[in-house]
Amino acid sequence: MSAVMATLSAVAPARATRSTAAPVSAKPAFMGASALSGKAALGDAFCAMSLGAPATRKQSRGGLCISASAIGQTASVNQIGFATPPSTGASPTWDAIVEVGGSQQFVSEGRYYECHSLKGVEPGTKIAFERVLATLSGDAPTFGAPYVKGARVEATVLENFKDKKLIVFKYRRKKHYRRKNGHRQQMTRFLVTKVVKP
Fold first, then answer.
1. HEC profile for the chain?
2. 103-152 pLDDT per residue, tens
3. Cα end-to-end distance, the chain, whole Å
4. How many other CB atoms are there within 10 angstroms of residue 31's CB atom?
5. Which residues of the chain have pLDDT under 70?
6. According to the model, what pLDDT value does residue 85 have?
7. What b/e readout covers 51-76, taking b as 16+ CB neighbours within 10 angstroms?
8. Distances in whole angstroms, Cα of residue 110 to Cα of each of 91, 164, 186
């Protein structure tokens, strides 16, 4: 019993010296940079890192590499090495309505769009959409029945990719039936280069 008491008394001073040590300075360094305060400063430190070379093998397979300069600007580099113009912010007036990939989209020249996978097209391929539902010249729209004759939208395929994962969950109450599946839709991103109006 006395041996146990001796070890306890020997441990107690060590604890006391640890608690009386000088307090740790404000924040530890963030990814090699000095400690910063506030969310804005933290974001600036993160953006200052070079994102040009992917950190892992998994990221390098993704296809998109964004440099730190591209974060400040709004351009990105896709699978064919073409710097795509920004498709963010206020949308300009539309030039045509196209039926593509099982859906209808308002499109404008010089912007890129995404649709369900177009079969058999590789990045860099030039394609033309003949199913144009409407075009806009100035303020006067032209609607087809169902398609506008002589209208065509020309585009360049930028990349094929998988969309974000969706969870498909089936459930029957009181029947012990649950099924959980994930689904990632194959998508195609294309850049509209020209809208031919009748």
1. CHHHHHHHHHHHHHHHHHHCCCCCCCCCCECCECCCCCHHHHHHHHHHCCCCCCCCHHHHCCCCECCHHHHHCCCEECCCCCEECCCCCCCCCCCEEEEECCEEEEECCCCEEEEECCCCCCCCCEEEECCEEEEEECCEEEECCCCCCCCEEEEEEEEEEECCCEEEEEEECCCCEEEEEEECCEEEEEEEEEEECC
2. 999 999 999 999 999 999 999 999 999 999 999 988 889 999 999 999 99
3. 101
4. 8
5. 1-92
6. 58
7. beeeeeeeeeeeeeeeeeebeeeeeb
8. 12, 25, 23
C-alpha span between 113 and 122 (Å, rounded): 16
Token pair belonging to 11: 């441990």
